[in-house]
Structures are given as C-alpha cells and as structure tokens.
Amino acid sequence: MSTQQKGVANRLINEKSPYLLQHAYNPVDWYPWCEEAFAKAVSEDKPVFLSIGYSTCHWCHVMERESFLDDEVAELLNKDFVAIKVDREERPDIDNIYMNFCQMITGSGGWPLTVVLNPKDKKPFFAGTYFPKESKGQYSGMIDLLPEITYAWENKRDELEKVSEEIMRALEGSAESDISLSSDDITDTYANLNYSFDSVYGGFGYAPKFPTPHNLLFLLRYYITSKDDNALNIVTKTLDSMYEGGIFDHIGFGFSRYSTDNKWLVPHFEKMLYDNALLLIAYLETYQVTKNNLYKEVAEKIISYILRDMTSDEGGFYSAEDADSEGVEGKFYVFTKSELIDVLGEGEGKLFCKHYNVSENGNFEGKNILNLIKTTTDDLENDQKMIKKIFDYRKQRVHPFKDDKILTSWNGLMIAALAIAGRMLENQEYISASEKAVAFIEDKLFNENGRLFARFRDGEVSNLAYLEDYAFLIWGLIELYETTFKVDYLKKAIELTNETIKYFWDEKDGGFFIYGSDSEKLITRTKEIYDGATPSGNSVTTLNMLKLASMTGNIEFKEKAMKQFETFGGTVGASPNYYTYFMMAYLYTNTDVAEIVIAGNRENIKTRQMIDEINKRFLPFTTCVLNDGDGRLHEIIPFIKNQKVENDDVKAYVCQNFSCKEPISDIDEFVTFLSVIKL
Questions:
Q1: For 576-608, what is each residue's pLDDT tens digit?
Q2: Which three-class secondary structure state does DSSP give residue 440?
Q3: Which of 124, 143, 172 is the last residue of a domain?
Q4: Domain for residue 662, yes or no?
C-alpha cells in the first residue's frame, strides 16, 4: 500500500476498497466510478481517464509510484482529463467490458488497465495497460501519451468515435453461436492440454506459468472416463512441480499467483484467495485418485495458511496478500544463507540450506527463494521444527499488505474447497470453517429483499452480486450439502440458482450476463465464458445446474444447462482448452451420472458407513442425497417420499443412465457397486 501522503486526500479517501484507498493521497484528482465524474467531464468537454487495477497488483504499484504520485503527470491528468479509479475485484462488470476492448485493439491485456472514454456514452477510444512516466523503448510514457490523446480528442474526435463504434459492435456480436459441442471436443480439450504440457517441469506452456487448476480438474475427470494414464500423469507432474517450486511458500504455506519462470521457482509473490481455493480442490481430488499422502499434506498446508492468515474473526475469507513489502517485491519471503544459519545454528542451518537449495549467491536478486526443485533426499529430520523457527523469525519482518475485503465469489470457492476437504479428510474443523463463512455471507451480504451483494469491508456492503458471486457461492453450498446433508444448504443453492436465472439469464440468445438486470446499466451487457484465473460464472453455473438437476429432478435447470452448450458451442469448440471448466460441465452430460439417495437415519452406523464409502472415492459424476425423513427435503425433491426410512433399516437407491436399480441395504454389496460401476 502506498504510504506516501502528499497534500490533501482526494475523493478516494471516502471509499472502502483497499485499492482505491491506496491512491487516496495521489496528486491526481481521482474520482471513484460515479455519475458525478462523468457529468463533470461532459460539462468541461474532457475525456475520462479510467484506470483499473487491484490492491495486490505489482505493476499497479509501479505505475502509481512512477506516474500517479508524480506532480507533472498529475498536472496533465487534472488539466485535460477527468480521472476515475476502479477496483477490478469490486467491479468485474466494468473491468470485463473495458478489458475486452483493450484486448481487441491491442491483442493483449492485463493490469493496470488504462482506458480513455468519451464521457457522453462511456465508450472507449483508447486502451492499454502499464505506461511509465517517460517513454522508454516500446513503452509510450505518460508525459508524451497524454498530450497526444488530448490533441486527438480536440482535433480528431470523429475518427476516435468511429473506431470506438466499430470495436464496440464487434464486441457485442462476438459472444454467441448456434454450434453445439460434440464428444470430439472433449478429446480435443485433452489433446490441446497434452500438446502444451511441459513434461520437464509440469504445467502448460512456458514462462510465465499460471496454475490454472481447472485444467487439472478437467484432466482428472478425463482420466477416469478415458482411463488414459497420461492425463493423470500431467496432473501429478504439475502438482508435484508446483509444490517443489518457489511458487509455494515453504515457510508460511499457500501458493503465489504465478511463476515468472518455467520451473515454478520465482513467483509473482502475491497470494490470492481464489488460487489457493482452486488448488486446494486440485490437490484434494488428486489425493483421492492416487492416495499419495503428499497431496493430502499440501492440502492441509494450504488450509493452515488460510485459517491462520486469511480468515476474519467473523468467518469470512480475505481476498489477497501483496507481493511487495517496504516497496520491494518478495522482500518478506526471501533469505540469505547466513541469516538462515543464524536462526537455526550451524549444524541444522547447513542441512536446511542444502535441503531447500539455498546458496551464498542466491537465486533471486542475491537472496534465496526456498524450493525443493533439486532436492532428492527424503523428508528432512526436524523439518517442521526448523520451519517453525524460521516462520517465527520471518514473522518479525514488515508483512505484505493484506487486502481484507471479503468477496462473495472468492469466498464461495473457499467454502467449496473446505467442504470437500472436510468430508474427504474427515476433519470437522474444516467443515466448521466452511459453514461459518456461509453464515457470514448470509448475515452480512444479503439485503432485506434477499438480494445478494458482492463485497463486504469495514462494515459496509457494496455492489449487487455478479454472476460469479452466485455461481461460486452455489458451488460452495452444493459441496457443503454433500458434506453435511443439512437441507438448508441444498434449499439455498436451489433458491440462488432460481435467482441467477431471474437476474442474469438471456431469454433471447441464452447464456448468463455478467451483471444483473437490476444492476447499473453499462455501455453493453456482456457474457463471459473464458475460464481464466478462475472459471467463468457461465461455466460454473452450467455444472451447478446439471448437478442440482441430477439431485432434485429439476427439468428447468437441465434445460438451461443444455442451452449453454448451444449458446457457447462455437466459441468453446474453436479452442476448448481455454474453457476447461465449461468442458467439465459438458463431460458431465457425456457420462453416465449416478444418482444416489441414501434412506436412513443419519445417526445410524450403516448410514454413516455408506456415506463414508462414497467420500473415500473420487466420484465427480455422482450426486448423493440423504433422505432421513426431513419433510423440507421432500418438498424440494418430491420423488424421494417413496424412498422411505423404515425403522433402523438403511437403503441406498441408485439410478444411472435413466434406469434405477434394486435398493441396496447390504454394505458389502454397496461397496461392490461403487467399486465396479462406471461413475
């Protein structure tokens, strides 16, 4: 966070967003996104300079230090523009529109995102990302760029507006198609991932390397349906390599955003809640498939980090931790060899340094990122005690800034991950943390009319929830139901899915819009299907609806999900490896899904045994409902009224491929069924 406070605060001082507050003492006369800013720009006939970023973005910090804290740049912006700051994590709707514009005109994107708009219609006519103060090499500097934009605005406005209109038409017409997917697209998704797989270091492509956990989730499902061992090898090699590298914090645990090199050694040091949630799921599922304890241990370490450092007292999960501390990227995380030996002593210090590949010269700007990339020995004796000593030593340093806003969407991902962890590892603490986060959202992030909101910070709720807020929270609720079998979670998942359809569904062309029909109207209403750093709201909603349809028999959910494959089929089919979560949903429709209803008292030992047998296995194409006689469940799923709980008897009712089998009451027979059936 910027600690430079020059003069008086600008309007951002009244905001709750940590990112906006970081710029509250810039000499730039920033506005938050508001009609007042656009009205001022219209009245003064000035373009709007829109800057979008987020609090833990390294290059956002760099651009602030170089330009937005500079009086010369500020003078140009204040004189010729109206400047607006937007936190992309709070306003994904705004970010999506202008990022798509940037990618279309420049071929790339990223943050900080820099866009210049016509204030009358909010349509962009210029876009880019990072700009230094002075021009250097291929980068135009703000000092040169701003006067050029001002000149074009004053003298070539018709040309700017024409280009803007052409690009906006292209954006609005690029979302949908009527081409359905086929089973060949599933094979193509795997083939494309296999082609880009790095067999030496794991992951996909070259530097920089991103975790993209949903690629791995798709491959695990492809593996169990195709029995192709190579698909599993891609997953295990990638997870092994990421854990061994510096992208994993071997002292405090948790994963950084991405690796700047191809071997996962040098991370971009910020830690994001969503990465750790999705990676937690990937490690858990791979443990379930392989029974390799390494994946369980990594999962437990991720959870340790989240519960220790990223959980509020009330149960919500914080968003991120910065890469920088004291203005230096990675400073909190790296060590010299001598300081490690000072902390541990000569004997243990040398052993520790050898184990974690620590050298005198270092591997990062003269210091060391701890890693296991070249480590061939077994676990280091007293490893945990040494790590605890170094953790306590590191704790005394100036910590990176923590973005403590609580986002519904990312909390939904962690709720799902902890629910899976709780049932898979039989850990009540994890389940309780997941439930506490749901209770927090229910208490803080719904208004009196039941409408969900996107962000909570410092006692304030803001922004009507977006599609991904609904999608990820519903995912979490489904997982939490299958972990606890508490009817309220299933009921809430269904209610929120109905609201998703109400507020976001496109009745004309299909698909779900990013923002709701009752939200602020922007220059266009976009849909997102690309599964980037997180899966898209459309992808997750599609699989949510398919699962809920399997569990409840809800026909509308199934129909809406199938419509998704038509709406986005052409886009996805062209490059399916960019839509791996969406392809997970499609794979779900191409597999014999098993629907299990266990009828029995939840306290009955046989009921528990059957549930435990399900939880032991990786069954992504299976849904499970517990019918313990709760009338509320019968209202949601009327057909299970006939699948009765009788005395102390327990029965498993199993349907698959549109046919139902004889109820199973013998536990050994149930185990045999789970072991041999294709699930």
A1: 999 999 999 999 999 989 999 999 998 999 999
A2: helix
A3: 172
A4: yes
| Residue 479: closest CA among 390, 534, 417 | 417
The conformational region for residue 109 under phi > 0 = left, psi -120 to 50 = alpha, else beta, is beta
CA distance 482 to 416: 10
- Range of the structural domain that residue 626 is part of: 594-676
Quick check: is 429 in a domain? no
Domain count, the chain: 3
Q: Which of 542, 418, 402, 404 is nearest to 468 (CA)?
A: 542
Rg of the chain over Cα atoms, rounded to whole angstroms, equals 26
Residue 34 maps to a domain: yes
pTM of the model: 0.95
> Which residue do the tokens 């937690």 mark?
280
Cα 166 to Cα 147, 175, 259, 326, 513, distances in angstroms: 24, 16, 37, 45, 22
Beta bridge partners of 50: 84, 115
| 150 located within any domain | yes
CA distance 169 to 640: 50
Q: Which helix (H) or strand (E) holds 306?
A: helix 293-309
- Measured distance CA(265)–CA(197) in Å, rounded: 17
Residue with tokens 């990675």: 330
pLDDT digits (tens, 9 = 90+) for 251-265: 999 999 999 999 999
Q: Give the contacts of 149 (CB within 8 A, at least 6 positions apart).
A: 47, 116, 126
- Distance from chain centroid for Cα 140: 32
